Every structure is written in structure tokens, then in C-alpha cells.
Amino acid sequence: MADPHRLFSTKLFPSSAPFSHVAVSRTGLAFIPGLIGQARDTGKLVSAELCPQAEAMFDNLAVLLAEAGLDARDVMRTTLYLTSYDDFAEINTMRRYC
After folding, report:
1. Mind listing the pLDDT tens digit of every residue in the chain (98 residues)?
2. Segments making up each domain of the chain, as ranges
3. Residue 53: which of 76, 35, 31 has the closest Cα?
4. Which of 37, 71, 84, 88 is placed for a possible disulfide with 56 were both Cys, Cβ 3.0 to 4.6 Å?
5. Which 3 state secondary structure label does DSSP give 47?
């Protein structure tokens, strides 16, 4: 079994919230909570538009996975929350991340 640990990324904008970017369990599972579409250097949302935010979020996810020694092939599940059902069709077109 792996030693549980937490990873605080130096490649993403530092969070003001008291949580780690990645938590690894004793079984080796990595959990990445609450990513948003923010710029890595400023912490601000990259755009008011849905797709640029989603792209930035997935790019930030890739950074965290790499820092944890993982990649997209290691992902078991993701959950994407939308604030409007009207955005469903637009987010569904983002096939490059599937």
C-alpha cells in the first residue's frame, strides 16, 4: 500500500481555500477536487464563456495529473457541473477531452 499524501501544486495559482490540489489514498487512488477554468498565473477565470473555461479546467487537470505521475489514462471518473442546462449541447461538443 502507498503512503497517503497530499500535493500542493506550484504550477497552478495558489488557492486561498485550505485544501490540497491532489490527495492520494493508502490504496494509491488520487483525488482531485474542485477545479475551475482559471488562468494558472492570475487565478482569474480565463473567460466568461463556457468552452474556454472548460478547456482551462482540463488543462489544469492535466498539470495536476502529471505532477502526481499520472495522465488522462489513469482517470476513472470526472464530474462537470454546469450552471445552466442550456450549456449542455455546447459542452457536449468538447470531444477532444473525452
Report:
1. 456 667 778 888 887 777 778 887 888 788 888 888 999 999 999 999 988 998 899 999 999 888 888 888 888 888 888 888 888 888 888 765 54
2. 5-97
3. 35
4. 37
5. coil
d(CA 23, CA 29) in angstroms, rounded, equals 8
> In sequence order, what are the beta bridge partners of 59?
none
Residues contacting residue 31 through CB under 8 Å, at least 6 positions apart:
22, 23, 24, 25
Q: What CATH superfamily is the domain 5-97?
A: RutC-like (3.30.1330.40)
Separation CA 7–CA 24 (nearest Å): 8
pLDDT attached to residue 62 = 92
Let me know: does 23 contact 4? Beta carbons within 8 Å. Answer: yes
Candidates 3, 21, 4; CA nearest to 12 is 21
CA–CA separation, 81 vs 34, rounded Å? 10
Per the DSSP assignment, residues forming a β-bridge with 24 are 5, 30
What's residue 56's pLDDT? Answer: 93
